[in-house]
Amino acid sequence: MTQALIVIDMQRDFCPGGRLAVAGGDQIVAPINAMMADFDAVILTQDWHPADHASFADNHPGAAAFSMTQMPYGPQALWPAHCVIGTPGAEFHPDLQVDRADLVLRKGFRAGIDSYSAFFENDRTTATGLAGYLRDRGITDLTLVGLAHDFCVAWSAMDAARLGFAARVAEDACRAIDLDGSLAAARAAMRQAGVTLA
Fold first, then answer.
1. Catalytic pick from 13, 15, 26, 107?
2. CA distance to 119, 126, 180, 195, per residue, from 91 (Å)
3. pTM over cut 0.85
4. Annotated catalytic residue: which of 9, 26, 47, 150?
5. Could you report the per-residue pLDDT of 152-180, keeping only the tens digit for each?
């Protein structure tokens, strides 16, 4: 029981028609479902934001979506409101095999701080508890898939490697936002962090 599939944020708002749609996001649902049987554990993460979340451009008068602002923890992209708690957009894609999941980890529920990584809030110190869960189960090898490749998947993979897990990103089962070259930057950063891109 050492191998886990970490499925990042396969939610309606990140798929075509959603509030923060990633091009082709729905195309990876079937490949992800097919991968699940190959792993000892499957963990799903779920963006879970209150409506007053600090990363929403709407909550910064005059700010444009996809612009940058400064937070106490550093630079922060401002996003269209998405994955708001209790809304249809926060639900998993209807075709995702959620019943296969051992754990659903919700992140981003603190209004004042964003949470790209499955392991830490964006302050890089507030832990989600995922590392402890994996270690308690004896899981050492992680394969990460989902949305978006260049943000939540990349940050999760780099944190996994930093925490001592063997981290691999299955790129065919990811899609990227690619904001101002963010995909190339994320891929370079992942390689530097010791993440395997496959």
1. 107
2. 21, 24, 28, 29
3. yes
4. 9
5. 999 999 999 999 999 999 999 999 999 88
